[in-house]
Structure formats: C-alpha cells, structure tokens
Write the structure tokens for this entry.
Amino acid sequence: MSPCGPDLMDDIRDIVSSRVGELSPAEKRVARALLASYPALGLGTATAWAEAAGTSMPTVLRFVTRLGLGSYRELQLRLREESTQRAMSPVQRATRSRTDETASGYEELIERRLTIARELFRTVPAAEFEAAVRLLARRPRRIHLAGGVFTTHLAALLAAQLGELLSGVVHTPDPLARDLAKYLDLEAEDVVIIFDFRRYEESAYKVAERVKRRKARLIVFTDHELSPSAELADVVLPVFVDGIPFDSHSGVLVLLESLVEGVFHALGATAIERMALWEQDVLLTRVPTGYTSDNRRSSRRRPVT
C-alpha cells in the first residue's frame, strides 16, 4: 500500500484487515460488518451498512476515508472490480490443477502450503491475535471449543494443547445436543472458541448467538471470506484457505500453534506449573525402547497350569 492511499492492486478486504488496529470501536464494528458480508454490504447503501453495524452513516463514511479512499463511490467501484475477478470454485480449481503438470511435484506442493501459511501476515491483524492471547491468558473459568464437520478435529487439537496450560478447557463436538448443557452455565468471564470455515454451518451461528446471550467472550477462527459468526465475535482470526483440491488447513494449523505458544509465554510460570501437574498425573502408555512384536506375543501367553 502506498503512503498516499491504497494501491490499485490491493484487495479492499486486505486493506481493512491491515488497519483494524487503528480503528475506533465503532469503526471496528463497521469493518467487521463489511467483512462478514463481503463484498455485498459495501455494494449497498451506506445507511444499510450503518444499520448492519449498529452505528451511524457518518461513521461508515469516516471508515471509508480511513481506508484511504476518496469517496463511498470509489469504494463501490473497487468492490465491483473485485467481484468480477472472484476466485474459481473448488471444482474449477481442481479441474485446472489436473492440467498443470508443473505444479504437482513434491517441492511445489509443499511450497504452495507454505505460501498459504505466509498469508497469515496479511489476513490476521496482529491486534486481533494479541486480543485472543489476552482473553485466554487471563485464565477464564471455562473455555469451550467447537468446530464443524471438517473442523471439529481442529477444535479438539486446540483443546488438547490449551488443556495442558489452562484448566476448564473442554472440546464440545455436539454443542447443540449432547454438549448443550455445557453452554447453559456460561458467564461473562468464560471464553468460547468456534471454528467455522466456508460452506459455513448454521450450528456455528446458533452457538455464537447462545454465547452472546450469556455475555461470554467469543473467538472465531474462520476463512478469509468470514463466517457469519464473525459479526458476533469479540475476536476474529481469518485465515486464507484456498487449496487444491480441497480448502487447506495449513494456515489455521500454524495460527493455532502460534496462539498456544503466545498463551504459554503470557502465562509464564503458571503454564509451567500446569504442565508439570499434567505430566505427573496423566498416564500415557508408551512403547518401551527395544519393544518388538515378539514381546507383544509373549506378553499375551498364559502360563501353563
């Protein structure tokens, strides 16, 4: 981005993400409303945008100016240009990739995923990441995590790692049924983490609504197009996911591990104490050195009577 304003090659979404830390609370609501309904909200009227963000039209116009754009009309022209250059569908990407023989070697495949991970610098504002670390490092009484069909394993992984640093961490695979009771007692000091990526799931939004009714804090991991749940979140962590043939989790795994390490450092000695207790009390059956299949068979033999 040039010092005089956004470069013509910059995506409006990227510009917004890069400047979230500079915005006032009201302007942040405007930004999140746009990102949650991108680009449609910006293609409508400023009045409708203000209503969606729960703020005023002057705030929307001030936000547009903060992006370095000369007018609301200029914003809409840029958004229309982007709309004509939308990324191909997953099926189109997969079909095209089969004809690209130069992009199927080992090094190319690994490099593609490294590139996706590097996109974190562009899609996740440092201020949002630091806010997520602070929320977790203040040791909330409860931390619930939930994911969708293709992301519940991410929620489980983050729950397992956070559970070694903090108490009260629970993975809730079925938050609207079997795990519903865990959400009935949420309080303002509690934190819920939702994973919801494109082909967004209605269940994620229902959980987000429940969290906000209970006045608990909400962190949403989502893709760069933003889950509808993002509009209800206290912290939004958007990750670039374009992959072939399926959306990639390379970026979100890097972000997840970075968040855990950030919380670890923020907790300091408390984290070490918790990890020591965990190591002391959790029994993991490990295969001893020199163990072979012959050992396994002999251990199952019953003594002759």
Residues 1-9 have pLDDT under 50 and may be disordered. The domain at 123-281 is CATH 3.40.50.10490 (Rossmann fold). The first strand starts at residue 143 and ends at 146.
